[in-house]
Amino acid sequence: MNSDVVITALGVINALGGSITEVSCRLFAGDQSGISLREDFIPGRQCFVGSVTAPLPPCPRGFESVWSRNAALSVSALEQIRDSTQAAISRYGPSRIGVIVGSSTSGIDEGERAVAERMATGTLPAGYDYVKQQMGSVSAVLARILGVCGPSYTVSTACSSSAKVFRAALNLIHSGMCDCVVTGGIDSLCQLTLNGFSALELVSDEITNPFSRNRRGISIGEGGALFLLERAETYDSDFPCVAVSGVGESSDAYHISSPDPTGAGAVAAIRRALEGAGLDSEEVDYVNLHGTGTLHNDSMEAQAIRAVFTDSVPCSSTKPLVGHMLGASGATELAFCWMVLTDPQHRLPPHRFDGVIDPALPPVRLVECGARLPTAPRFVLSNSFGFGGSNCAVVLGRKFDVG
Questions:
Q1: Local structure of residue 157 (DSSP, 8 states)
Q2: Hey, which of 6, 19, 66, 171 has its CA 20 to 30 A from 277?
Q3: CA distance 125 to 341
Q4: The whole model's pTM is what?
């Protein structure tokens, strides 16, 4: 089993809150109060989004040219793991720490505002710098704040971005290039993504309703999660020991925005993740669904789940609680999986929908509110599927044998 790399710290921020304690409490309660109706993104239309309302840090001195809401969200998550990260820097040295983050928006919101001001006044805002909109700025800001100089880059493969960073982080550690990697995903709300998905007729007029016969599309959210990954033999902490047990990737190359309707690419990614973890499908205790609430994704994913797992594995989509966080969704949902593995009450995130099962979908066991596992879970799997058929599945495992 590939369990030699473990999570030694976790920071999370999304529509459910700005800390592990707050987010986990509302996650297991199935709290949808973080999803609100907004009218400032799509002209002439209201839509439900998962907005972050937790306080965000101010721009540090000297970071004005690269600062954005995306940067503020990432630093908010970073502050939650700062002590552990500083300890790792002291232990290994700044050149041995990598930073790999997934994102699909970066500072696009600031770019939109700058363009709007130029159209209105003829000039860009004073001090505006395009660099804050570049995808690489997400990881660059974090590396600069931490003062580390190991490999640093951003992965942007749409909705699979911050799941795929875990494969990249494992590669850096296993190759000997890094001893520790700060990894995860961050995305912020902006007009580009909301209007883009609206143009594709994928934005729902209601809170997203995955796997329902009445599903109408997605609700977009913002936020993210950052993890600290290190080799298991260096683990010396009271933090619950969870390993990155397996990562599987595949590419459909079926269509620019639609998945392979057969689910073949998703199945390949899931099976590769299980193979990397050395597991049979029956050993997985919970599956976090990509579960976007679109007609094509839910159909494809239901077929994939049925092809790999028995009908007894509990599954849920957490997007009705935080929205589809696009480039940050993979890391966010792996943070939820970490919460499942470490919850002393063995609770599961409920699948919030209208309860009207789509009879056209292969049956999947969806988690009801208040559901718990009879015993402590050992392994959980999370799916992330992006445009262009970029698929990634990640297995996390509760590791009891460290030391």
A1: B
A2: 19
A3: 47
A4: 0.96
